[in-house]
Structure formats: structure tokens, C-alpha cells
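User: Can you write out an input/output pair for a complex, sequences first and structure second?

Assistant: Here is one pair. Inputs:
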Amino acid sequence: VSGDPVLAATLASWDARGDVLVVLATSAALYAVGRLRLGRRARPGGPFRALQMCCFGGALLAAGVALLSPLDALGALLLSAHMAQHEMLIMVAAPLLLLADPLPCMLWGLPRPARRAFGRLLAPGGAVRGALALLVRLPVAWVVSLAVSWGWHHPLAFEAALRNDLVHDLQHLSMFAAGLLFWFPVVCPAPRVRAPAPHALRIVYVLAALLLPSLPAMTIALLAQAPLYGYYTAAPRLWGLSALDDQRAGWALMTLWEGLTFLAAFSMLFHRMVDGEERRQVAREAALVAGDRP
Amino acid sequence: VTAAGRAGVALLSLAALAADPGWASHGGRDRLRLVPAGPYVLSAWTRPDPPTLEGFSVSVAVMRPDDRSPVLDATVRLVVAPADRGEPPRVVEAPRGAGSNRLYHEAQITVPRPGPWELAIIVEGPTGGGATVFVLDVEPSGLGRWLAVALAVVLLFGILVGLGWRAGRGRGIARAGAALPDAGAPSGGGRA
């Protein structure tokens, strides 16, 4: 690093944003307090697994890296870094947060009146629960989440986010929300507002997200002859990377990152589907054996 | 939710939003794009957009003209003057790394009155020096940001008051139900 002053300056570009730090610290505190409270009530070896805690910590870490680390500053100079920042939010932080299933813990981290009030909001028959149940239907979640994340890649929207910090924050918030929405029906965490879709349908959902948007992305990445985002043409070029090469690298990175994440999700869902089918088969055979006994 | 709790949450939110002047330190409105200045080329951005009397930041990237790699050992000064020359110019140092992006030279600037202001960027580096100028319109007040903060706080208060009202209403209904002589017995009627 000391031999490359540009790299050294880049790696020193941390941004201790007060708003992000407060949100992350508050979330961690709520989760920790709630987990302690629920842990006292749960039986030993109860429902809270260490893996969920790791997922929650990983989600906060990924959000912190995306928004506070040099990746954020680098995103103003390189499209590829900006794409990596978005992938950290959509493909790492969002699914890890859902895998942690944090709602019960975070609700129990609240004071009792607030916890009850939030609980009532999510109670059956409430408007919030109804809206959520509609949003997390597989086709709705697929269309809305991909429309939001791809809509931001239109040059007008993308450059508006680069030029105005408020729009940029809105871009990150909405992309993270789109990530949560996309992964919700795959992971099915609390609140369980509708019955989980069959594994086979969830596999189709993930494969459709893998195949359909990736094709135009790769086409743009490979065939574009000029930078799509004029903003980056005025920025300094780092390590000899031209704006066009950076653009190709950014789109390729996005496609590869999302492809690998979707493949990992596909593998997990397929494993669960086969596992469930095997258990059902064993149960059927056990029932047959029991039926043959006199 | 107690009044103290609501006030605490609101103050925390306000502090979080206000702790970061100019929102995030990312990007900005481009004022110069690859403009030659002596042996270098410069790009410059300002934040927030539009600049206001509350202050704004100017980020300057100094680059080599051949490969546009960043020049890190240059010194940058800004000369700020009203476009009508009504006041003497003021010189502001823009050291590299003053903002969160350590590749840029950055300065925070406040001006005393709105209107067009001229910003001259003077750069000096190992291979020489140069200068370039741009004009920007400074607006009277930056209500946008504080309006957003105020809206966020009002929204938060609204949500908390609404939740508190619902909770109080729920308790009231429960108390009223408990006070009935046949509370707990199946009524067969509608909701209270």
C-alpha cells in the first residue's frame, strides 16, 4: 500500500456517517436486548441458533462496509465500485438479515408498550399485514424488486443519485428494501404473513431472476461502445482503467455476483426440497410397515 | 411509549440526520469537467445542490492530462469573489483529504450574500501551476435539508403518537370489556 499512494489514499477514505452509525447501533442494541429477554424465557437449546446471530452480524457488517468504507468514496470514481456497493446491500446485507429472522428479537428489544403497538400492527386482519402479504407474493415481489433495482440503472436516475446526496441515499434505501422484498418469499422469515410457497416454485422464482435480467446486463456490458453514465467521464481514472472498461467490469461484476448468489440460493432450496421429499418418503414407508403389522 | 421516550427517539433521529452536513460526502453537482489548468486537468463538484448561504463544499480532482490519473501532491487554493466585484476576494485552502474522499482536494465555503459567485481554482504541483474559474449561483437559504429533517421528525412523532393512541384505545377497550358483567362469555355479537 505504501508503494501506491493512490491505493493508500483510497483505503483511507472512510466516512463515519452519523445517520448510518445510529441506525446500525440501534439495530444491534435492539437485537441484543431482545435476544437476552427471549433467551431468559426460552428453554435451553431453544429456537435461537448461533447461525442466526452470525447472519445478523454479517448483515450489519455488509451494510457498514457498503455505506461507510472506502467502497462508498470509490463509488464516486468507479462504476464497478458503485455496483459492488449495491450488490453488498441487495445480495449480501438483505438476504443475511432475513436469514437471521430478526423480527422477534428486535420486537422484544423494544419497551413493552412499543412492542405491543408494533405487534398489533402486524396482527392478522391489520392493514400492514395485508399489504405485506400482498407484496411478498412471488410474482409481485419479483416484479417490484427487480423494477426498483433495475430502474435505478437508467442513466437519468443513476446520475441524479451521483449528483445529489439525498437522491443517492434514497437510491440505497430503496435498493435495500427491494433486496429485502426479493428475498422475503425465498427465506420466509417472520412475520409469516402467508404460507411459504413450495420449494419448486421458489426455485423457479430464483432461476427466473438469474436468467432474465442477466442476459441484457451481459449484452450491455460487452457491446456498449461508450460510457452510459457521463458522470464518470469527468472523474480521475484509477490504475489505468478507462471509463468504458470500468463500465464493462461493473456490469460483469454485477452479473457474476448476482449469478453466484442466485445459484447458492438455488442449491439451498433444491437441497431442502429433496430433503423434504426424502422425509415424506420415509414417513410413507413407515406408515406402510405399520399398516402391514397384524 | 412515554413522552420522554418519544422525545428521546426524536432527538436521536434529529442528531443522526444533522450530524452529517451536506448529507453524504459522495459525488455532487459537476461544475468543471476535465478543464485544463497549466500542466493539469481539473474536475470540480459542489455539494449540496443548489449551494446556499448555509455553506457548501467544493471538491477538486487534479489529474494528469495524458492518463487522467490523480495528482496527489498538488496544492489547491480557491479564490472566492462575488461576480459583481462588490467585495474583495477571499482565499480558501483546499487540502487533499479534507473530505472523506482522500483523492480529492476539498474546502467548505460560506458566502455572505446570495447571487452569482466566482470561484477561481489555483493549482500548483511538481510540474507547474495553473488556474481556472467557474461561476455558481448561491441561493438564499437551504430550507430543503432542514425541511426534510423536520418532515422526518414530524413523521416519526406521528407514527409514535398513532401507535400510542392505538395502544391506549386497546387498553380502554380491554378495560371496558372486563367491566362488563358477562365479560369472557361468548356474546355472539359484533366487535366493540
